[in-house]
Write a structure and sequence with these properties.
Elements lengths: L11 E5 L5 E8 L2 E8 H11 L6 E4 L2 E6 L1
Antiparallel strand pairs: 1-5, 2-3, 4-5
Length: about 70
C-alpha cells in the first residue's frame, strides 16, 4: 500500500492493483473534478472486510486508487 498526496488537496490514496470489472462515474471532490472508476471486485472485498461503506475509488493512468478523506 502506498500513501501519496495529490497537490494541495492532501488526499491520502491507497493503490489498488487489479482493475477488472469496472464502471466509471464523474465526481468532484474539494473542487477537484476527475474521472472516478470503481472496481466492483475490490468493492466487494472491501465491503466484506470493513463492514462499512466503500471508499471512493478512481483511475489514475493505468492504476486504481482509493480516496481516504
Amino acid at each position: 500500500w502506498e500513501h501519496p498526496r495529490i497537490n494541495d488537496h492532501q488526499l491520502i490514496l491507497h493503490h489498488i492493483t487489479d482493475d477488472t470489472c469496472t464502471h466509471t462515474a464523474s465526481k468532484s471532490a474539494q473542487g477537484l473534478s476527475t474521472e472516478w472508476e470503481t472496481s466492483c471486485c475490490h468493492l466487494h472485498a472491501l465491503i466484506k472486510a470493513s463492514k462499512t461503506s466503500p471508499k471512493p475509488i478512481f483511475r489514475l493512468g493505468n492504476q486504481i486508487w482509493m480516496f481516504h478523506f
